[in-house]
Amino acid sequence: MVERSLVIAVAPLVVALLLLFYAPNIALVYYSFYDRVRGVFTVDFYLDVITNTVYLNVILYSLTIAVATVLATLALTLPVAVYIALYSRGFERILLLVIFTTPFWIDFLLRAWALKSLLYMVGVREGFLALMVGMVYDYIPFMLLPLYASLARIPPHIVDVARTLGAGALDIWARIIIPYAVPGVLVGSTLVLLMSFTELVIPSLLGGVRGFTVGPLIYTLILAGDDWGRGAALAIVITVLSVLSIVLAYRRFKGWLL
Amino acid sequence: MAGVEVRFEDVWKSYGAVIALRGVTLTAPGGRITVLLGPSGCGKTTLLKIAAGLLEPDRGRVYFNGVDYTRVPAERRDVGMVFQDLALFPHMSVFENVAFGLRVRGVRGLELERRVREVLDLVGLDRSFYNRRVTELSGGQQQRVALARALVIEPKVLLLDEPLAHLDYKVKQKLLEEVRRIQRSLRITTIYVTHDQLEAMAVGDVIAVMRDGYVVQVGTPREVYENPRDLYVASFFGDANILDSRFAGLNSDGLVALRFEDVILNPNGDVDVVYEGVVEDIVFQGAFVSLEVNVNNRSLRLLVPRREFVRQGVSLGSRVRVGWKLSDVRGFNSGRT
Ligand SMILES: Nc1ncnc2c1ncn2[C@@H]1O[C@H](COP(=O)(O)OP(=O)(O)OP(=O)(O)O)[C@@H](O)[C@H]1O
Ligand SMILES: [Mg+2]
Predict the structure, then answer these.
(1) Closest-approach residue (CA) in chain A for B79
(2) Do A12 and A134 lie in a common domain?
(3) Of A14, B43, B142, B209, which residue has the fewest beta carbons closer than 10 angstroms?
(4) What is the pLDDT of residues B200-216, one digit of tens each?
(5) Are A19 and A108 in the same domain?
(6) How many domains does chain A have?
């Protein structure tokens, strides 16, 4: 009985996903192989994308920024997540979680503009620094929340026990906190990597000339250049790359998943 | 190894507005088991954490063999602690849980394996357990792992916070015996927390009865049982009737305590006070039978050996005589109640 009602409850989401997510993506695949001008199917767009050094450079540059964003958000949020999960309780814990996530209750465009004016005020113009600040700032909750969720599973007192057994701060990080953090790091990194890799708004608003990452590139190709073939091929190459890197990461850390 | 003596001197501790300890002074003699006995919330765990170095007292000192350890952090105290909730490492196997304290000390290879094996043998866990996840063990097995993990570092002091709570009677009896056997063979100074008086008597060389952040009385189980300092100790440690002093036969005012087993059923001489009453309740407890007798609308509890109970043929509603010796009545001059 429960199963049957579950099927009914799940159905709307499945239908929505099929129509809104999978259908456009299948269309994208179609566009990436179909040359509208010549009216034939071809792999030229793909060849173009993976051999054209301009595209490759943009992909590489975007990937560098995405990885840097992952590392920076991780470094910034790990201590915070440890503090919230292990050393705060009750009202303080809720307050901290709210404080670190409220900025994200505001629309992302508005936030980016606000950040832009703020950076201008302190004399930082569009460029790499502004771009990185914007990215890191934007993706903090996507790293913090999964990290917090996995660290919150550390049972009470095991850090105390470890201390009585002679564990110093390093031992506690290495033998308790890190093992517990790994699933959160994987989930958080996946989210941040995928989203920052193809981010459109932040590079456009804050990146200046350095802001030409894959997000704006695809946007330009498809919407400004009307080059659906190359835009679609690029998008798919990036998707494949992302999925591949995530599969590899999960393989690598499988034994760590508690 | 004589064992390290642990001494608390006027230890105070509060959590915000809650005062958990109000000046505890107590010596846990080297190589012995000292039991902290007291009701929930009286500060037992807090005192243990202060001994472990996990909490700093607001005031007062802690000495290990006369050396001031008050500010020595937990990781440098060589104290083995078993927590009330055990707090095993759920992400590690049985072997790794026990090996933890050795690994952080840099013990490796064969020596690590030998020492882990020795201590797991000691608590009665064989090889088949080594690779099991601790979350897949029974309660009693988990207690053994927790004990082994604390013992493997050869601690100066062993702190056990209700290590056998939530176990069924038989398992508890067995583990109690083992704790005593292990403690005797290793001669580790042990502080054992419980709120169960039977457990306290079973393991304690010394018993410290606590209440509201104080230590009320310290002594051997027999001393405390036979000479409770006040009504609180009398009724908490062992069971006692709390009676009006004049009713009990004394020529003074106030309250006194009379142990259940010191009230004699249908005495023939040899008692100083005798009353008549009606049996209102009978609880069969095995070796003993607990009776409630109504004497002039006061209810008295008495504990009668089963054979005696059978011999006298008492049943509900029986009219009986009850009596006691004045020397068994415990009066108290002062004492908080
Ligand atoms: N972290 C804490 N924050 C605030 N109050 C606390 C904290 N820990 C303990 N207390 C309070 O301090 C008092 C003593 O607590 P403690 O845990 O030492 O009692 P206990 O004797 O071990 O009780 P139990 O037998 O229930 O384990 C209690 O009133 C408790 O509510
Ligand atoms: Mg406690």
Answers:
(1) A164
(2) no
(3) A14
(4) 988 999 999 999 999 99
(5) no
(6) 2
